[in-house]
Amino acid sequence: MTELPTPRCWVEISCDALRHNLTLAKKQAGAAVELLAIVKANAYGHGMLGVARALAESVQLFGVANLEEALALRRELAHPIIILGPALPEEITPIVENGFIPSVSTLEEAELFSHSGRGTSGGTKLNVKIDTGMGRMGMLENIAVATLKGIAALSDVTVHSISTHLPVSNEDATFTREQLARFSGLVQQLREVVPYSFKVHALQSAGLFAFNEETFDIVRAGMVLYGIPSLPDLKIDLQPAMTWKTRVALIRDVPAGHGISYGRTFITPKPMRVATLSAGYADGYPRHLSSRDASVLIRGNRCALLGRVTMDLMVVDVTDVPEVKTGEEAVLMGRQGDNEVSCVELADRAGTITWEITTRIGSRVQRVYT
């Protein structure tokens, strides 16, 4: 079988940057707090297994979205794995059999795990979710005490942890502080009624750096690991772990008045030299960056994106980089020379959030760990 000599579109993941960012999170959380590394959604596009291997010696738990991710991770690592999303009915038995920690929002869910876990050694550990304002999962606060009493009375399950989620930690500090105060008070009540110890987690990356007056027992480290700022004014030495690259596939000289790409949304105002790059929206490069003053880096120079991003290709202006040759690297996101196209810049120009930029990077884009 013929192997490709070079990748056409790939991301380079710096393991040193991952570990550097983890060190910052651990320092902020404190030595006594456990780190739950969030590697769901293919580690925010960085490659779940590669990231998990890089961090395995320094974190206590891993967090994934669903059973499929948990099974893939279990084949590599023996760490405790929390499944952060709700389980489908047919997933309950394999979750129990593999010793994963499911997240439950109701007594009924806990009863299903109790029934499925009968006769298993030690029973199933549960992450019990409380809805303090996210509105996506979890039991409401006013029934949490009674529900947890019911869960505690079940056989073959134990409460590993109690958690909540912060919906506006990067937007509304007043609500978030009030939400955490309510959750902290509720945790105190729950510790009085549950006959065994459990751990507590509420802070994700934004919460860890903006609302860490109380860190609880576990911190969910997600975006911070990947060097993606979760707060607009976060002043810490994060190192972006990902550099996204493609190659110059074609160079052409076009006359003035020539249309570029579908819709002819860009007409050359003068004779121009243009480069066609081997990346498009099928690779995850946002089509919304079309006509939004987006740039890529070639030989350290910003080269403007021209016209619409297409499925497999895109066109950029290399008029001012006459020495560029086919096969050269072009940086879609990251640093090259003295210039940088950051994830924040791409998200702002595309009108989206930073973590959507990385998580949408497609499976045909190779992940290379350095």
The main pleated sheet reads as: 9 strands, mixed
Class of secondary structure makeup: alpha/beta
Strand residue percentage: 25-35%
> What form results from the Cα inertia axes?
elongated
- Number of distinct beta strands: 20
CA radius of gyration: 24 Å
Distance separating the two termini: 26 Å
* Overall pLDDT score: 94
Count helical runs. Answer: 11
The proportion of residues forming helix, as a percent range, comes to 25-40%
Poorly predicted residue ranges: none
Can you tag this structure with a few keywords?
26% strand, single chain, 370 residues, alpha/beta, 9-stranded parallel sheet, 11 helices
Q: What would you say this structure looks like, in words?
A:
By secondary structure, the protein is α/β, with parallel strands linked by helices. Helices cover 28% and strands 26% of the residues. It has helices spanning 15-29, 40-44, 48-55, 67-74, 92-97, 107-116, 141-152, 173-193, 205-210, 343-350, 354-359, and strands spanning 9-13, 34-38, 61-64, 81-83, 101-104, 124-131, 139-140, 157-163, 199-201, 218-221, 242-254, 259-260, 266-267, 272-277, 295-298, 301-306, 314-317, 329-336, 339-341, 366-369. The strands form three sheets. Strands 1, 11, 14, 15, 16, 17, 18, 19 and 20 form a nine-stranded mixed β-sheet that branches. The radius of gyration is 24 Å and the shape is elongated. The model has no long low-confidence stretch (mean pLDDT 94).
